[in-house]
Give the backbone structure.
Amino acid sequence: MAFPDLLDKIGDLGKFQLLQNVALLVPIILLTSQNMIENFSAAVPRHRCWVPLLDNGTAQASLPGAPGPEALLAVSIPLGPDQQPHRCRRFQHPQWQLLDPNNTATNGSEAATEPCVDGWVYDYSTFTSTIVTTWDLVCDSQAMKPMAQSIFLSGIMAGAAVYGHISDRFGRRKVLTWNYLQVAVSGTVAAFVPTFSLYCLFRFLVAFGLAGIMMNTTTLLMEWTSAKSRTVTMIFNFMGFSFGQMLTGAVAYGVRRWPLLQLAISVPFFICFLYSWWLPESARWLIITGKLDRGLRELQRVAIINGKKTVQDTLTMEALLSAMREELSGDQATIKLSTLLSTPVLRLRICVSMLCWAHRGHGLPEQDLHPAPDELSGPPLHSGQLPGAGWALRPGQHSGASRDGGIALGSGSAGAGVSGEHLHLHQHLQWRALPHGAKERDSAGRCGHPAAARDQELAAA
């Protein structure tokens, strides 16, 4: 008797599989939020240099005539290439002549400027805090922001290469339980770290655990489902990625401080860690590794949950031995990377999978396509929610006990990482440089575009 026959006897799409799908769907939803969070927690708000005349109440009160915030902004901050207050430079000395209507040098281009040696003033109207405002990842340090996402993607690639082999040795459920705890602890600690380097370290550990969750969730579901029901099961599970993207936007809309947002998507993994102890281990893995007694108990347990109590008489040690011989004789040939690439069908599927994951990589660092959320034509909190349809793994694929398929997932994660790096190398691209950007800027003053009024708010800050 082969293992698929055992699944048919205990019920391959019954109450147990439904409960298992729901239990494993929740972490997938949260996992997607971890992937997308930096579209919000790493957003770059509008900013300018800190200047005494505007931001030091004592210095402003000592000025004769009490000039308004707009006037003080004009004499303190030069105009940038977009004719808006420069974000990274300030005048060394106030340029009072710029307030003279008869002055011809209206832009102060010849005046001496300096970097923002005293820090920056940020626009907190959209985001109360981000990692950019916390560690001043702007101007000369702006390359550090995409570096955080690159490190995160590297963690996914490394985790995909490691956790597949670990689960072969220690079991799917044990590794999955550890992954939940790892993501919960690392994500929670990341919300309280004092330095950017520690933040990147714990985000790497989060991503490392997320790769294990993705791989072992898929494996555990398919090894408890017969081939004819895997497509429905995996489609239901992959819906969690789209739900997670919608949830991320909703949570980010209500939680504008990045540490609280990080906690909101990390703490629930502690709950996943607790109930994961209820999940049964893969009976297929138990049988193949020779743990027949425990495999028999898990099969009997699932049969009871599915209401198949009458089949317990047929679930004998002899049946499991027969299933073990069937599995070992058919599926346990050693698979190397060269074998995968030399098979035409598998080679095609690996390439398609890499392209799909590369498309997903474009969705993760979407905020790098524009310098500030308020320069978009739509609400900034809608950013990063559209690529949900990009998840396209083949749900009916065969799942044996060997996890050399982790090579394929690792390759796909590499595609996501390379795609993300491609955007990071082009982070200097400004939204205003796109074909429709100039038209929007020209009409900003007439149409009441949010960017047109933002400078007045910054001047009054």
